[in-house]
Amino acid sequence: MDRHSSIDEAGNPIDNNRNAPKAPPREIIQYLNCSDLKKYSLAEDTIQLSHLNIIAADNPCIMKASVIILKNNIFPGHGYAYNITGKRIVMDNNEFKGPEQNHYVVGNNVHLENNTYQGNLQVHEVEN
């Protein structure tokens, strides 16, 4: 497989299309109330955050639902903790930047792809 290919959830190769449409611009969210995340979702017991630039959030930010989908978001930096728990978790193309971030991800089916983690301390625990 070359550098222009990736694998789908079933493990099959996918050829990336360089001409694919770009993600829409991110909406700026000044403060994310993590206890009220259901308002960003279309389905019950699902949390979906897509195309957001989050300036500040609850700390810790606890996301708990059967399905959690985080796509193309920028999460706030210094000193934040993210506790993400669900049966199915998809995290694609997110940016977690800043020192001393803690991430605790627990799920039965966890898919992580093309996320950026930067900072002095990053703690990631993924349990399946």
Shape, principal axes of CA atoms: globular
Oligomeric form? single chain
Low-confidence stretches: none
Helix content: under 10%
Which structural class is indicated by helix and strand composition? Answer: mainly beta
Average pLDDT figure: 82
Order of helices and strands, N to C?
Answer: EEEEEEEEEEEEE
Number of domains: 1
Strand tally is 13
Number of helices: 0
Computed over alpha carbons, the radius of gyration is 15 Å
State the major sheet.
6 strands, parallel
Q: What portion of residues belong to β-strands? A: over 45%
What can you tell me about this protein's structure?
The protein is mainly beta. It has one domain (26-127). 0% of the residues lie in helices and 51% in strands. It is built from no helices and 13 strands. The protein has strands spanning 5-7, 13-15, 27-29, 46-50, 52-54, 61-64, 67-71, 74-75, 81-92, 95-97, 101-113, 116-118, 122-127. The strands form four sheets. Strands 4, 6, 7, 9, 11 and 13 form a six-stranded parallel beta sheet that branches. The protein has a three-stranded parallel beta sheet with strand order 8-10-12, with no helix packed on it. The chain has a two-stranded antiparallel ribbon with strand order 1-2. Strand 1 (5-7) and strand 2 form a beta hairpin. The radius of gyration is 15 Å and the shape is globular. The model has no long low-confidence stretch (mean pLDDT 82). InterPro entries: Pectin_lyase_fold/virulence. Residues 1-25 are annotated as: Disordered. It comes from Danaus chrysippus (African queen).
